[in-house]
Amino acid sequence: MAATTTTTTTNLSPLSPPPLDTTKPFSFSPSKLLFPKTLTPKTSLSHKPNFTLFSKNPIFEPNFTDPDDKISIFEPQFTDPDANLSKDSILQAHLTDPDDDFEYNDDKPREECGVVGIFADPEASRLCYLALHALQHRGQEGAGIVTVNDKVLHSVTGVGLVSEVFNQSKLDQLPGDSAIGHVRYSTAGSSMLKNVQPFVTRYRYGSVGVAHNGNLVNYQKLRNELEDNGSIFTTSSDTEVVLHLIAISKARPFFLRIVEACGKLEGAYSMVFLTEEKLVAVRDPYGFRPLVMGRKSNGAVVFASETCALDLIEATYEREVNPGEVIVVDKSGVQSSLCLLTHVVRKACIFEHIYFAMPNSIVFGRSVYASRHKYGEILAMEAPVECDVVIAVPDSGVVAALGYAAKSGVPFQQGLIRSHYVGRTFIEPSQKIRDFGVKLKLSPVRAVLEGKRVVVVDDSIVRGTTSSKIVRLLKEAGAKEVHMRIASPPIIGSCYYGVDTPSAEELISNRLSVEGIRDYIGSDSLAFLPIESMKEFLGDDSPNFCYACFSGKYPVLPTGKVKHTGDSVDDGLSGSMEYIDGGWIQEAKDDNGKSRSPVPEKDEVVA
Asked: Is the overall model pTM greater than 0.85, yes or no?
């Protein structure tokens, strides 16, 4: 079935900037510094993509001769000749992530989005398409690319995988030598096509496109303020807020508009912006989500969520976009400023190295493969067991299992085969079919398992439902013993920084002890990676990572908003904050100035 896409239209010269010095993971060496008035934005947090912008604010000047503009600036078109389906049927088919039909994937945290930016390459749209392929694991529900040509922005977005959204004819509609791209994962069930990024809008001084990975925790507060001043929102996306803030800013040039807008954001954001003349990359002061910079041999500058995207398009990795950094690329070269609250301690997401990122990526200046391999080695040293074979839960448990096998001296074998063809089934599975979920995804290899004492390594346990089915599957295939080893500490806290995780009460480690979990999943033994050992491995970088999902200690947390059943990621979180891990506490108050909740002790979770 063809993906549903929307194509819209709203310049850049070849670039030969001086080469950037390759920097160490947490150091900074820009080729040129800008020193605007330093703003002090508040701290940062998590994201969901959603948007099509239209505003009655006088700073916006939509073209009312375009009938689509009376609905929204870039309203999706449901007349794709490749898709002989109604709007409702298209949305119904795609709004249910097929993997959600089967508990194998539903019992994992979900990354929410990947971004790409390319400046000054004549094949920008095709390179962006390939880079998005490399980031497909970061989002499978939608994809989009925006390019600029002769100072006009061109956009193609659609629901589905990158290969379903784009074909040769779609890429031909994206001329120009600069581009931004986005892949999206979401849990919202509303009007998905209009939520696919990049978003593009026109304002008084031109056009701008944006692609965002993260989550803004003060989204609802900012939206309320903007609506009170006349802005009109068409989606529930926090990313739409960013465009409104840029549009109403009186700062000039565009760089300072972004700085001023980001100064009002609280949360996690790694963003790329495209205008008629510039590509801009921005990362929040905590550096929750990854964003890297590279360069092609022809001088083209590339930004991406992970280095695996750079590798695929043959761009050389140069460095991270530093937390709190704004990088502007135009025909004059690369300009950079660390102007967004640079005094905070960075809090990079540790789960990028455990599960989200590709093993061949360098994330936060460290090899993902090396981290996972080491976590497996640590498990073998700290939780040894007599066994005959080590296997992995594919695919995310493979590298840790290799590490466990190498350190323990027990052979690694492929005891579970993952099917990559269970997916877009377009059926409404009955409960009986749902019960086959793990069997549809994972097939045991009886020749490896029968009569053996098996260590099975997985990256994490969230609800525990999948782990129990995997243990049963292995024993039904003849395994004599099944010993679970988890290459992360127990997950006890929800994430507000750009990851879709269950509510606190759904997390099995919040409800049961390790022995209780072992009994629930039916394994012969169970061990998690000790958080102290993880931090010891990270060494001097340890304080620069966020462990909130393991410790319950949040760098910044919306007041009273620990996730509960039924909450969604972008559910209108309160703008009032309890700053827990930053060395001070701000009491949350209601409109009458009264305390809305008891002020917690430092590093205490607000329940």
From this structure: no
